[in-house]
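Subject: sequence -> structure tokens, single chain

Hey, anyone have a minute? Need the predicted structure for the following. Not urgent.
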Amino acid sequence: MESIIALNVTNSKSYQEYRTIVTQLVQQNSTSGDDISEDRINYTMLNDRRMKRWDKTIKVSDEAKDRLSNFKGDVTWLVITESWCGDAAHVVPAIHKIAELSHHIDLKLVFRDENDDLMNQFLTNGSKAIPKLIMIDNQSGEVIDTFGPRPSRATQLVNDYKAKHGQLTPEFKEELQHWYNTDKGQNTISDLLNLLAV
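Reply:
Had a minute. Here:
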């Protein structure tokens, strides 16, 4: 598994490269991934706008910055994602905000459908759920922990809804988008600080 991870880190993109690719996909009326459907093209367009907004508006509190300053490890955050993924549009910009505040964290991104071997090592309840963050110790190359596809409160909302209704409806997915808009990345930031054990 470590060789798969090392290969993916080598072939990964920076956050800025990823954002450029997503914007270019919008300009080409296309999407990332194997399924170039009209829906996914539309989601990519929507997500590009969401990420532009979050890049400007997600705030990291002074308390969170203080906690982050206590992290003295040396890690890579390898994130598996796709341009059309609704959760990724909200979560990945928050991951970037934390990573850019610490020189101890190197953020790298890869596309899910181009990296099936990697994705299959990090399934969530048997599914290829994204975004998926893999935290790798840069000294040993070992996986320390993972995060995703959603922050803890959103995961609880999804699990509760599935338990009651069996599957997610379009109405619930809209409610989840409202939750992300209200939360403003704060639950993701809190979860990431817990991941770093600070």
